[in-house]
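Reviewers of the previous submission asked for a worked example of the structure-prediction workflow described in the proposal, so we include one complete record here. The input consisted solely of the amino acid sequence. No template or homolog information was supplied to the procedure at any stage.
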Amino acid sequence: MKMIIIAYNEAIDEDVMEMLRVNGQKEYTKWTKVLGWGRLSEPHLLTPVWPKANNILMTCVEDEKAGPIMDGVRKLRQTLGHAGVKAFCLPVDDVT
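From that input alone, the workflow returned the following structure tokens.
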């Protein structure tokens, strides 16, 4: 199994959710209003100076589903810009 963690600008939530839907992934956990500062983006700190926030979405999938989802994130990065979305794919050793 693989765990995919997607960090993205909250403004593109519908795009990320549609990408998951297209890839047949219904199960996920999402954190909203997450603060942070990416290497290629402005800070998202929910302050008057930096008013934006991020979402983090985590999903566990079978190995064969991980590639298409990561490709979906790559397509989002191409169309929406690198600063708006990033994904990490990690091995899952055990689930309970």
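The helical segments are 13-22, 63-80. We consider this example representative of the routine output the project will generate in years two and three.
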